[in-house]
Design goal:
- The protein is α/β, with parallel strands linked by helices.
- It contains 15 helices and 16 strands.
- It has a six-stranded mixed sheet with strand order 1-13-12-14-15-16.
- The chain is globular.
- The two termini are about 30 Å apart.
- The relative contact order is 0.18.
Length: about 375
């Protein structure tokens, strides 16, 4: 397989090196306005706004005007859609269609098989979401965040610091394949999926060329990743990103999930003994969807943590996502309504992984 040598066309250093949890500028926070029957629609922000820079469509081509399209609450924590606004609005009838979306009877509400959930793999949610860029006070994110642990991946860090070519292989499900990133869907602003953001971020930070082999496949579970592990090992990767769990959550106990992940690493090491690993614990799905067993996500995260040692790191997206959902709606963050991230979510995935591999304070001064 010919690797993708990732270009720097989307390497926004603010996005890549200033994670939202440390920055005082929130860039492109997603908002989905839902009218729940009261005749208006209000969206909560991650942080109270100090200065609003922009509220625009998710594609960036439409600008919305304060006073005409929206107003801010007194505490500047809520964005309120006005009656004459041009901002897209989603109704409860949209969220719970009477007919299965895209003909998929699998997308029904938990404990309510006759109630379906709004779902779409293209730009359905992208067109309904808007994005806010604003400044805010420092220190407002209090949930746990990842920290630099690159020294625990000595081979990877040595190659990066030496500006040597780094071969990365990715095995995972549709999230890692890239689903619902605007670049994957083919709509503006064409943001790449998280694995490409990770690769371009590493190049920006260290100057290394990244040979990226993305073997992730929609619908896969960790046992399918295990069956495909020899193909991953045959690439002789320096670093392997393993990202399963979303599809496993409907049937696999944490100990079985962890056994499959451990098996993938063992199989890869048969062909690439020096390979190092980043294990990604997944985002959280729409809790109204019937399929996932929700408490397994914390179990998966903890089980992956138990596999970590020198040469193996945990990229804990699950905990960050829990923190986001304390302040944001599922519909602000979703790419498909069920189990995929939107552009912001892909950036969160990338930021979590890059936080492990890049000393962010040093990287901010690196020219790109």
């Amino acid at each position: 397989m010919t690797p993708a040598i990732v270009p720097m066309s989307y390497c926004d250093p603010i996005v890549v090196f200033v994670m939202f949890w440390t920055s005082t500028t929130m860039k492109r926070e997603p908002l989905c306005f839902v009218d729940r029957g009261a005749g208006d629609a209000t969206v909560g922000l991650l942080f109270p706004i100090k200065e609003l820079i922009e509220l625009s469509s998710a594609s960036g081509d439409i600008q919305y005007e304060e006073g005409r399209d929206f107003r801010l609450s007194a505490d500047r924590r809520l964005v309120i859609r006005t009656a004459r606004s041009g901002i897209p609005v989603t109704t409860l009838d949209d969220l719970y269609p009477a007919i299965a979306p895209d003909g998929s009877a699998f997308m029904f509400k938990r404990d309510a098989p006759g109630t379906f959930l709004m779902f779409g793999e293209g730009d359905l949610f992208h067109r309904r979401q808007v994005r806010a860029t604003y400044t805010h006070q420092a220190g407002l994110w209090t949930s746990p965040v990842p920290a630099f642990q690159g020294d625990r991946l000595p081979r990877t860090l040595r190659r990066l610091r030496g500006r040597e070519r780094l071969t990365i292989a990715v095995t995972g499900d549709s999230i890692s394949e890239g689903y619902n990133a605007s670049g994957f869907v083919g709509v503006p602003p064409h943001q790449p999926p998280y694995v490409d953001l990770v690769a371009s971020g590493l190049t920006a930070a260290y100057g290394s060329a990244i040979a990226l082999h993305n073997l992730a496949s929609a619908g896969w579970t960790a046992d399918q990743g295990l069956a495909d592990a020899a193909r991953v090992g045959a690439l002789e990767p320096d670093l392997v990103i393993i990202a399963f769990g979303m599809n496993d959550s409907g049937y696999a106990a944490p100990e079985d999930f962890a056994a499959n992940i451990a098996g993938i690493m063992s199989e890869v090491r048969q062909a690439a003994s020096n390979a190092e690993f980043v294990l990604v614990s997944p985002m959280l799905p729409n809790p109204e969807w019937h399929y996932p067993v929700l408490d397994r996500f914390a179990g998966y995260r903890d089980a992956l943590s138990g596999l970590c040692a020198d040469g193996v790191l945990l990229a804990d997206v699950t905990t960050i996502w829990q923190g986001l959902l304390e302040r944001k709606s599922v519909y602000d963050l979703t790419g498909n309504g069920i189990n995929h991230p939107n552009d912001f979510g892909h950036r969160v995935y990338a930021d979590v992984v890059l936080s492990l591999l890049v000393d962010v304070e040093k990287a901010r001064s690196v020219p790109t």
